[in-house]
Amino acid sequence: MAQTAFAPWDDPEAKPLIEFRHVTKRFGDFIAIDDLSLEIYEREFFALLGPSGCGKTTMMRMLAGFEPPSAGTILLSGQDIAPVPPNKRAVNMMFQSYALFPHLTVWDNIAFGLKRDKLPKEAIEARVAEMLKLTRLEKFARRKPHQISGGQRQRVALARSLAKAPKLLLLDEPLGALDKKLRQDTQFELMDIQEKTGTTFVIVTHDQEEAMTVASRVAVMDEGRLIQVDTPDRIYEYPNSVYVADFIGDVNIIEGHAEKSGDGYEVTFAEGQPKLRAKTANGLRGSGRCYLAIRPEKIAISSQEPQDAANAVRGVIDDIAYLGNLSTYYVRLDNGKIIKAQTANTRRIAKRDLTWEDSVWLSWTDTAAVVLEN
Amino acid sequence: MRRLLLISVPYLWLLALFLVPFFIVLKISLSDTALAIPPYTPTLDLGAGWAGLKGFFAELDLENFWFLTTDDLYWKAYLSSVWIALFSTLLTLIVGYPIAYGMAQAREEWRPTLMMLVILPFWTSFLIRVYSWMGILSQEGVLNQFLMWSGVISDPLMILNTNTAVYIGIVYTYLPFMILPIYAALEKLDISLIEAAEDLGCSRFQAFWLVTVPLSKNGIIAGCFLVFIPALGEFVIPSLLGGSQTLMIGKVLWEEFFNNRDWPVASAVAVILLLILIIPIILFQRNEQKQREAEG
Amino acid sequence: MRRFSWFNATSLTLGFAFLYMPMVILIIYSFNESKLVTVWAGFSTKWYGELLQNEAFLSAAWVTAKVAVASSTIATVLGTMAAYVLVRAGRFRGRTLFSGMIYAPLVMPEVITGLSLLLLFIGIGLDRGVMTIILAHTTFSMCYVSVVVSSRLVSFDRSLEEAALDLGCSPFEAFRLVTLPIIAPAVISGWLLAFTLSLDDLVIASFTSGPSATTLPIKIFSAVRLGVSPEINALSTIMIGIVTVGVITASLISKRASLRLQAEEQAAART
Lengths: 374, 296, 271
Prior knowledge:
The complex is a heterotrimer. By secondary structure, chain A is of the alpha+beta class.
């Protein structure tokens, strides 16, 4: 869903909305955020992605004002926000638990922030009505939070945090509490609302599929550092490290020895196996140890040796995982290495000819694999 | 058969030692004082049969209750009991809420210790806890000595044997009853609700007033009833700390019974006290019921 | 991530000072040489000595101990039965009255409970003494026991009892072999509560005791009505000491038990 026209991060003229400058956050001895710099632009839907404990929630809480950075500065529209307390920031947050006030109705929850701004009564009513409409909650305005479903609560939380028209909306695992089906529908709803309101969204999630679906850019984090910040397609297709390749989606990692050859590399990975060819734009620092990352869906599986394939290896089907729309074949090479290959089940199962212990060929093009150091 | 036995043993015990005595109080409150043993008439003489029973009921009347309204000692005592209990409950809330709040904000590993520190006085004798204030509040007591030493006052304050001492005594002895339910409510409070309020533009005080207080409402109500109900019928505190002008109905009942040996009037006093108590008890039960439903 | 501010620290410090200061002062003055309780005249333990010489206090203490042990034990049995009835017996005729009679004594002013029991004892011609105090104390403390025990029974997994019945236990055996061991901590704390309530009670004991039986609270009350006395300070100190040691020991034991359970569960999870 990346919009080709919208890419302020590639524009050297664009002014970022948020800037982290060498920000560090310590809790006692524990370093939650380690000298991190990052720029987020207006109207972006930015995702912070990482395993629990990677520091993504701390980043968000620093933006909201609940945690001060231990070192470095955070700028919002070019101004240092360190001295601004949370209640004075033009930043609103949607909490993971939703944090809906149980003693107030849906209407009063949404109006809560507006009332703090001492807006006239009519203005509050109009804005709440607008928010209720946006989140399709008109019918539930008079209910208390415990009288509505989980999905509706999620929408109340969203409406409440959007009501004050913040410059920046923070969403902490906004869909974590919903079941899978509802989550998928809600993802599109979130994107829709983000587009309609033009608000900058920063979302924290550990669900890579969710990050890929909704975000204009994704930051993959680990142990308080940014590993890679890029658009979802680039994160997937051109991971900059084994960590990112492994964290996002399914991947085969083949360790080997790389030698420069033409516009790419030839990788020796096991004795008696052909060298693997891979083109790459960003060269390795030298020839030596490397890792090839190949997505399973980019590997073709066939019972006959394929013609003119850049890479082809032989193996035996060890296991088949049938997922409905896809099947994943676990193929054991002669040296014992297991390679995953995925095919779409476009035909009914009875018509497919591959089964356990069949000898098969795996093949992929020279652009399918990414060559990585470390 | 076993089930019947299981039910009937505690059932009969409570019938015999709780319900029946209560009806006896009711009956004696309708009888007349007499110089006899026991000091009231009529006594039920079952030997006289149906006529005796009829005569017995015929002699019961509301005279004692009428007497309570004619002597202003009694209604003043009821009013003053209600006032003292209300005022002390309010004071206990003012003292107890910050403590409960502090406990709920304390680090998790401290909380069991803080809880134990609140509960520990529960286990020590109520009488001793009230008594301990006598040495502090008396004219030559620790408090007056301290205040005179520090130069705040030049003449000792008269605190013991006044209503002030009664308020202090009630706040002190019933403080844990106030702290525990409020703490239980505050401890359950999700910190992200406070953060959400601040995120939406509340100052700390506004967040406290608009979110923390309403969400601890049930704890506050429970705590207030738990202090008010026993304080209303309190006897030990007014008789040890209060003065001769301290009027509380528990004390009046005691004196009516032990000093004046007027059993029928004492019983009438008790019946009225119970009638006054029924209102807050029912309200309390409703609050608890509502809370259980909200949680369930 | 809670915010513990100076305000919280101050209110906790002041609050606990208020809760404990009077008792600390009482304990300090129990070691005062002077008969005048408000003047400090040097350290002495003489009031403890005099207390041990005081026959009246000693015999009152003995009566109190007898009453407390007897009434709390009977109350624990009756209260546990009552709790079982409340939680497990299902519907029966008069259930509402029954639960009303369990909860009502908890909020009943002591003066009324005392008065009504006294009138009952006189009405049936029972001589007032140790026996009547035990009956009175049992009645109100069984209600406390049943509240404590029933709150534990509510969270008790009923399928454990059903498993016992399925494996051939009679209902009573199922209770004795399965239910009782599991709810034992609640039963014990119910007993302790009943015991302290009985030790503590002045008002109900005053109504229901006769000249032959005086309990310690009655004795203390009649002594302190006349003013502060150093002997009572010494007695209070002893009582506070016993309770403090008892409560701290009990909480340490239960904490050790829960820590051990935790450690054993962790060890089991590793294997």
